[in-house]
Design brief:
203 residues; mainly alpha; DNA-binding; 9 helices; homotetramer; Arc Repressor Mutant, subunit A; 2 domains; 74% helix
DNA sequence: CATGAATGAGTATTCATTCAT
DNA sequence: AATGAATGAATACTCATTCAT
């Protein structure tokens, strides 16, 4: 059983392991990310990993948590600003920020997301979905006419999931047929039109 | 080196192996799909697999090819009909058909897609993307006003990729918050509104 | 999952592994008997062991079964003769035979018994206890006055268990204070006296 | 190198560790008794164990010594009484006492004996054998006719070893076919009869 | 004295792949 | 063409022991 880190040094070690995990996945892929390799990158013995993690899976879980927390920490403070913008601007602003975040540190996070996308356990999208839902809710509160949109639940789910996948997918493309900015613009416009039309259709 | 199957019997064996692959992934997951298990399900010796496939990866590639071909074979004949429908009806018709296809044989294909989604090599989306692009192109040819839409390339890419992911994602959900039909309807409406708005905006 | 050996060659391999197990325990002790060492001694790759045994424990179980079967195969055919002898002669005859058996092949079996004595799973004494019980029963049938002995069940259990342990214990002694023959004689005399006294005490 | 505990507190710590060892073996078995677990149970850091013991083996040795000393401390004071009894009574009295001792503290000692029986190093029977030999010697001195028994050395060795094993074996049995008291009685009677017969046979 | 963080050799087990029959 | 026995590199995980603080 993994110990709870009690000393300051131990806390740092945990961080080191998680970071080594990201580096390893980025460099070698999920499959080739072995406990030994993580330990090597972290500059630790294999055993040290098991001082803090019950098993390999737990490292991935921690990595996911770490990443999701970072995204949330990036998005949440911007919500007040984002809700005041027009839809197109808001979406673009958000997406551009996300791109920067995903590309930081040699695309560490981007590669992690790509690698774990298929893996329900390793990739738990929850916290980010929640903050995006929150953003959307706040947006609606600032734009009351949107509150009357039908199927808001369905559409927001659809929008959020699709966006995440589209973004990851595009950022992963080696030779994309068009720029990320164009993608963002397209996404924004689609949302905007949808809202406009639906509201216009309301009695 | 795996020989090219020349005889009728050999072709059948290859098919048997591919089918065993799908069954195995569906039953035990990608990780637990070993050559031995595939051979067992196929009722063959392990060695026999290597008569027809260079390595395990090649089986997955063949499975992907097989699956994609099936989707294409399902979509292509419907194109003439689909292009004559309204956007909403067309999208819904297509998506409903896809659902049936993915759920056939104990969700064999759905489980395969889900399992290989993160894997760029095992999941090569190409042929399906092409037939969908083709459908879209034909659709535009039948609805000339759409030809003037700006960013058609971007938007079709966006639409197709997002749809595929959204569909797989929703079908994988254990307790979806809304029905697949609602999802299809939402998707269709979004596309429809987008087209309407953009065309209206044209000079 | 370990395969059932289907070919002749496979059967031989299973035997080889079991024998290697005995050699390894004899040479290095139970603790140091690793799957790799067994494989090395057997002249096989590690993997081959797992073709026929689910896990390491299963090898020990098979070894125990093999050993017990050998003891039984040694004792059972002698029962007809043993039951016709006097108690002292019968016990001595049996015990001397057992010594030879245990000392065969560099004391392979003796060392195995010694090593696994404490291990309820690895050392399942059952089959030997049964054949000894059988011998005792037959003996009683040939010496009807013994049938009237009280506590026959208790005493036979006591006798058998004690004998096994005493024998193993003595054979394991580096510098025994007295010979194995003396031990056997003592054991025999004790049994004999007990029977004589108890029968004499009967009404 | 572990220091010799010089202070009172250190002595107590050593005792704590030994007791933790017994608890750990009783709870989790020999295999699962790790230094870490012992330290946890003792409420110490792992490192502290190595202040007092050179290695893990040394803990087991100390535990064995502790246990054997306890048995000796239990038996020795009773010798004067035991030697004055009849054989049957004496044996029963002794054995019943041993049972109580082994069952104390959740069968701590019984479980320890069972676990280490096969292990020559961890289970050194010496001190107990010596006190039992002493008891036997004193007994003979009080019953001078016994002094003329032939093979006294052999028989006492046989008796003592068999008894120890039989007792442990029976106490370990989940569903014993007969009670411990019956076993003790049987053992006592066997010894008694043996002595009677042998003495009667003397010239 | 006491600690717990760090270690790394060692272990059982898996599985894609080969190859003699 | 077909097989299944054999392989061994690779992997996750353990745990006695050390040592800096």
């Amino acid at each position: 059983m993994a110990r709870k880190p009690m000393q300051q040094r131990a806390k740092a070690t945990v961080e080191t392991i998680i970071e080594a995990g990201f580096i390893c996945v980025a460099r070698h892929g999920l499959q080739a990310t072995t406990t030994r390799r993580i330990a090597d990158i972290a500059g630790l013995g294999v055993g040290s990993i098991y001082e803090y993690f019950d098993n390999k899976e737990a490292i991935f879980t921690a990595m996911n948590r770490h990443f999701m927390a970072e995204v949330v920490a990036f998005v949440r403070p911007q919500i007040p600003e984002l809700v005041r913008m027009e839809i197109v601007a808001s979406v673009r602003c958000l997406i551009d920020g996300i791109e920067v975040l995903l590309r930081r540190n040699d695309e560490r996070y981007l590669k992690f997301v790509r690698a774990t996308l298929g893996n329900r356990e390793a990739f738990d999208f929850g916290p980010v979905r929640d903050v995006l839902m929150d953003l959307l809710l706040q947006y609606v509160l600032h734009h009351p006419q949107m509150a009357r949109l039908p199927d808001l639940a369905v559409m927001s789910h659809l929008l959020i999931h699709a966006s995440v996948f589209i973004v990851v997918q595009h950022l992963s493309e080696e030779n994309p047929a068009f720029s990320f900015a164009e993608l963002g613009a397209g996404l924004a416009r689609m949302v905007s039109h949808y809202v406009t039309m639906e509201i216009a259709a309301l009695p």
